[in-house]
Amino acid sequence: MAQAPVLKVENLSTRFKTGQRGKFVHAVDDVSIELRSGEIVGLVGESGCGKSTLGRTIVGLEKAHTGKVFLDGVELNRLNGREARERRRAVQYVFQDPYSSLNDRQTIGETIEEALLIGGLRSREERAAQITKLLDQVGLASVVKDRYSRELSGGQRQRAAIARSLAVNPRVLICDEPVSALDLSIRAQVMNLFLDLRKELDVAILFIAHDLGLVRQASSRVYVMYLGKIVEHGPSQELYDNPSHPYSQFLLSSVPEADPTTERDRELPMLAGELPSPVDPPSGCRFRTRCPLVADRCSLHLPEPATVSPAHSSACIRAREMHAKRRSIFVEHRAA
């Protein structure tokens, strides 16, 4: 029997007003995703595709226009007051920038203690012990609790931010580009920390990133997002080995090669046209204005996700064709 999702998002849409009457930015449009306990799920796409807005809407930092968010089967949108605060506390957000997500006027210990108080831990002795435990859990020495965030390195700040998130025993972590602001030498360490936390705490992690290499390393499943829509979803290895949506193929063709000589000599793929406005997205398939495989019918209706292999779906009319060929259309166009 399949494990029930700890977090389930159904047909979620988030939009923002513009300066024009009746016009909205359709940042997230009819998105459905699932996370299960103890797994890391990747969410990838270009900057501006709606990844961060989706994460912020799930955690309650942005208000959903339509759709539902379930935590352990309970619909969070229907809750109010104390029950809503307590339930939503189980979904924590790790921000991209560790330099602005911590209060410089508080020591790290005070920052974590504040979270523990919000979580209901009233005993001062228990809070002190828990602070030491949390710092140890994220690989920081207990002496860090008496320092201010401005005295820490970027990697230490991000670890402290993660410790604060863990203070309320979350069921889900929404991690928004959590290593992109860190030095390359530190990124692997923080990524290993997320892998350890997944095992130790059985927490579900939504890992938002544009670095596909990091997502491949950490995630068991991946969602690909374009202009507010999920265009492909599948097991990480399957999706990376055989992407079945033109946009996913473009993203993967753009990943740098490990060999610097190969990287220097290769021709990077290019997309036609400009990224459409989320205020006035194209009719039908949103990727059609930049897709090398576009057909007349792509403008008529939004493609339904097609199952190309177990647990792997792609919202493209040619998904099964691309999956069967197992070759990037961008490689073919360069060869031609």
From TrEMBL:
Localisation: Cell inner membrane
InterPro entries with a match to the protein in the record: AAA+_ATPase (IPR003593), ABC_transp_ATP-bind (IPR050319), ABC_transporter-like_ATP-bd (IPR003439), ABC_transporter-like_CS (IPR017871), Oligopep_ABC_C (IPR013563), P-loop_NTPase (IPR027417)
Membrane topology: Peripheral membrane protein
SUPFAM superfamilies, A to Z: P-loop containing nucleoside triphosphate hydrolases
Segments forming domain ABC transporter: 7-252
Domain of life, per lineage: Bacteria
Molecular function terms, GO-annotated: ATP binding; ATP hydrolysis activity
GO BP term, example: transmembrane transport
This protein's UniProt keywords: ATP-binding, Nucleotide-binding, Transport
Annotated Gene Ontology cellular component terms: plasma membrane
Primary location group: membrane
Family note: Belongs to the ABC transporter superfamily.
PANTHER family attached to this UniProt entry: D,D-DIPEPTIDE TRANSPORT ATP-BINDING PROTEIN DDPF-RELATED, TRANSPORT ATP-BINDING PROTEIN
Name of this chain's protein: ABC transporter ATP-binding protein
